[in-house]
DNA sequence: TCTGGGGTCCTAGGACCC
DNA sequence: TCTGGGGTCCTAGGACCC
């Protein structure tokens, strides 16, 4: 493959600073200098912190009850997750960047990789400054941008950029990059998690530089192919496989911890039906059908009492996106794994064997198959259901099997902010 | 008392086939 | 008496990410 320095891709990673906490602040100017945190589902643990909250020593992922005294002492503003808001602001940030560069590869709700080639690469630092300014101007979200010859280096650079003024560049083979890698604990490298840090430590590999310079065979044996790719990326060799955008999704998950423990089978059935309705709606929106479903229930890992954790797979007789079929399958699964006498803490489902609806629709086999009329009626029902829920809000129309929105197993999120940008009733009024 | 949810990829091992 | 080995497919579990 030909490759010269002039046509080689330079990667930019744009990362929104303290994203969820920043979103909460957008419509609350009174919180400008106050510490702000956002909690996970059921208000369980901390998933985002403003700079002031970080300065107080509140850790990422810390359980809320552990930091509660601290929160009170410093009058920290505490929010439940509001994904409708974060998703909407995220889309605005992505669209803003698309106004400046031809290709934005969204990686997560608050991050995007941008490949830079030709003149864009030649003026990368200037472009990064322009991107930051425009995103801040159009959305009020502050970003950090890392530039690097591979995605892994760009990611590392963006972390460092947070402290150094917004933009930082790491290019393989320069003295500055060498020094930086020597100072970086290996666990801060993208793709190296807790388990790998431990394995590497036993072999004296403590820094990003150690990993970069380790023997390929040993790295491969220790961390498998993904770990080797990470080491190569630190050297400046792109191994895109692990970050390529998948052609289409392979699974779909809906699962949640309960607001309170559940012992009653019918309550579990309701929770599973709610998950079935949730993935059914997503399947139809993405024009997919699923061929198999797993049902999962379990007790708490932390509480006292016996632990129970079981999963079962149910094959569907034909690929479907009907909530009715999915609810029936979750019921069947629940019957096979439910055991009385446990305090259940969580239930969920996972869909497999996803195929595009177009792959099946209109096939002769389907048109003449037994029950074809019932299936057509079912599709029509789902169409009406989705239209109603789009118009009147999620859950406006639902199956009786799902139970009520006030059921005891529903997740609690007592500190949720308004849906500032996505629900008419929640729009900010200016007097 | 109280510890998230939604994804992907890799590997090892069993079943099955010839 | 003698009793293979290699390929493929599937699944469960591990590890990682945000």
What does the model show?
This protein has 431 residues and is of the alpha+beta class. The strands form 3 sheets. The chain has a 5-stranded mixed beta sheet with strand order 5-6-1-7-8. Strands 9, 10, 11, 12 and 13 form a 5-stranded antiparallel beta sheet that branches. α4 packs across α6 and α12 runs antiparallel to α13. The radius of gyration is 25 Å and the shape is globular. It binds a DNA duplex (18 and 18 nucleotides) through α3, α9, α11 and β9.
Keywords, please?
single chain; 431 residues; alpha+beta; Alpha-Beta Plaits; DNA polymerase, domain 1; Dna Ligase, domain 1; 3 domains; 15 helices; 20% strand; DNA-binding
Largest sheet features: 5 strands, mixed
Radius of gyration equals 25 Å
CATH architecture of the largest domain: 2-Layer Sandwich
Low-confidence stretches: 1-6
Output the CATH homologous superfamily of the largest domain.
Reverse transcriptase/Diguanylate cyclase domain
Spatial arrangement of strands, main beta sheet:
5-6-1-7-8
Tell me, what's the shape?
Answer: globular
Structural class: alpha+beta
Global mean pLDDT: 89
Q: Look at the structure and give the CATH class of the largest domain.
A: Alpha Beta
Total strand segments: 13
Beta-strand percentage? 15-25%
Termini separation: 63 Å
Helix content: 40-55%
Question: In terms of topology, how is this protein built?
Answer:
Elements: E1 10-16, H1 19-26, E2 36-39, E3 46-49, H2 51-55, H3 64-73, E4 77-80, H4 83-98, E5 105-108, E6 111-116, H5 118-122, H6 124-139, E7 143-148, H7 151-163, E8 167-170, H8 175-183, H9 194-202, H10 208-213, H11 216-234, E9 252-262, H12 265-285, E10 288-299, E11 309-320, H13 323-337, E12 344-352, E13 355-356, H14 364-368, H15 372-392
Parallel strand pairs: 2-4, 7-8
Antiparallel strand pairs: 1-6, 1-7, 2-3, 5-6, 9-12, 10-11, 10-12, 10-13
Helix pairs in contact: 4-6, 12-13
The protein binds a DNA duplex (18 and 18 nucleotides) through residues 39-45, 47, 61-66, 68, 81, 107-111, 190-196, 223-226, 241-242, 246, 249-257, 300-303, 311, 313, 348, 350, 411.
